[in-house]
């Protein structure tokens, strides 16, 4: 089979190599899956660079989120067991953690439903307790993680403010359903949020960016508001001033979705059932901006790493080389 492998750490476009390798052999409790679609996540780029908390042994195949097919023909969602990741024709995954792919979504959309939407659901509902009528502020609202939070926020009955970078992403955020869109490249984010909320600020802030975005969040969070820290796509990890949280009565909530897989896996299944229901109703639908063949995976991972994509980019091994849909 063909698989992308990383033999040394560096930028994805430089260190990912497409090779002919043997199919992986499942271990105890694992299953072999034919990859129907692999969704690209920012952690894939971080792993290539050696900057992610999970560091699989070299060589490894990136790709942490797939829609796959079991030997008996079932469509499932899975997080492949590294080092046999999803940017390949076949991957392995833990049998106990498989989730049924929603019938309402195609392979690429289904692959994109897993990590980003689970993270959004846990962040907004489990951690922040978002309620209908509240205001939700989403940083990087046109990206893969942010777009999921926007849709989930709207489905929950919140007013959603999206912060993006660039005119093309403004259009995407509006199509996703944001009630207010702020272009951080041409607008003062703090002033714009205060204007949009009548000076009150946002009840819940969803931050996968860190750095300056977090600083902005502390200045526009409402009384008893909640800032959900999801990641640091900016590359800068902020050091919050806890006296400021005390003075303004807001909460800073961390979210590492992967921990639920070991701490409380039943919640992941419960969340998937809720997401499947929302997808069936049309309340959520992953934004897949690109579908690329396996041969285009390295370049696509690099684009995600560079922050120039919107929504999700999916790798479909069944597409012919050079094709895109």
What's this model, at a glance?
With 325 residues, the chain is α/β, with parallel strands linked by helices. The protein has helices at residues 12-15, 42-49, 107-111, 115-127, 144-155, 167-176, 189-196, 212-220, 242-248, 260-263, 265-281, 297-305; strands spanning 2-6, 16-20, 30-39, 66-69, 75-78, 90-94, 99-100, 135-139, 159-164, 180-183, 202-207, 221-229, 251-254, 288-292, 312-315. The chain has twelve helices and 15 strands.
What does this protein look like?
With 325 residues, this protein is an alpha/beta fold. The protein has twelve helices and 15 strands. The strands form three sheets. Strands 3, 4, 5, 6, 7, 14 and 15 form a seven-stranded mixed beta sheet that branches. The chain has a six-stranded parallel beta sheet with strand order 10-9-8-11-12-13, with helices on both faces. Strands 1-2 form a two-stranded antiparallel sheet. α4 crosses α11. The protein is globular. The model has no long low-confidence stretch (mean pLDDT 95).
Mean pLDDT across all residues, rounded?
95
Q: Portion of residues in helices?
A: 25-40%
Unreliable sequence segments:
none
* Rounded radius of gyration (Å): 19 Å
Put simply, the count of helices is: 12
Rough outline:
globular
- Biggest β-sheet, characterized? 7 strands, mixed
SSE order, as H and E?
A: EHEEHEEEEHHEHEHEHEHEHEHHEHE
Distance between the termini: 23 Å
Structural class comes to alpha/beta
Strand content: 15-25%
Per DSSP E runs of 2 or more residues, the count of β-strands stands at 15
């Amino acid at each position: 089979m063909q698989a992308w492998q990383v033999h040394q750490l560096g930028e994805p476009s430089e260190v990912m190599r497409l090779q002919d390798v043997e199919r992986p052999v499942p271990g105890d409790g694992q299953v072999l899956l034919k990859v129907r679609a692999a969704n690209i996540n920012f952690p894939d780029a971080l792993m290539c660079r050696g900057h992610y908390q999970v560091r699989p042994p070299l060589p490894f195949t990136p790709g942490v989120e797939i829609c796959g097919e079991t030997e008996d023909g079932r469509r499932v969602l899975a997080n492949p067991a590294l080092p046999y990741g999803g940017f390949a024709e076949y991957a392995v995954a833990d049998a106990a953690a498989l989730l049924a792919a929603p019938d309402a979504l195609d392979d690429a959309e289904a692959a994109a439903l897993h990590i980003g939407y689970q993270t959004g659901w846990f962040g907004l509902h489990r951690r922040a307790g978002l309620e209908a009528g509240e205001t939700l502020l989403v940083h990087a609202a046109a990206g893969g993680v942010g777009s999921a939070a926007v849709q989930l926020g709207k489905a929950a009955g919140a007013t959603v403010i999206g912060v993006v970078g660039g005119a093309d992403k403004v259009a995407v955020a509006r199509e996703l359903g944001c009630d207010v869109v702020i272009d951080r490249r041409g607008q003062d984010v703090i002033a714009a949020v205060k204007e949009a909320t009548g000076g009150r600020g946002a009840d819940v802030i969803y931050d996968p960016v860190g750095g300056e975005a977090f600083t902005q969040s502390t200045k526009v969070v409402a009384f008893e508001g909640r800032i959900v820290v999801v990641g640091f796509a900016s590359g800068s990890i902020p050091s919050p001033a806890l006296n400021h949280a005390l003075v303004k009565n807001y909460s800073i909530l961390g979210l590492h979705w992967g921990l639920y897989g070991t701490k409380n896996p039943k919640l992941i299944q419960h969340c998937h059932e809720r997401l499947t229901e929302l997808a069936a109703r049309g309340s959520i639908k992953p934004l897949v901006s690109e579908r690329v063949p396996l041969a285009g995976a390295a370049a696509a991972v690099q684009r995600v790493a560079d922050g120039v994509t919107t929504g999700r980019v999916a790798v479909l091994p069944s597409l012919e080389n050079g094709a895109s849909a």
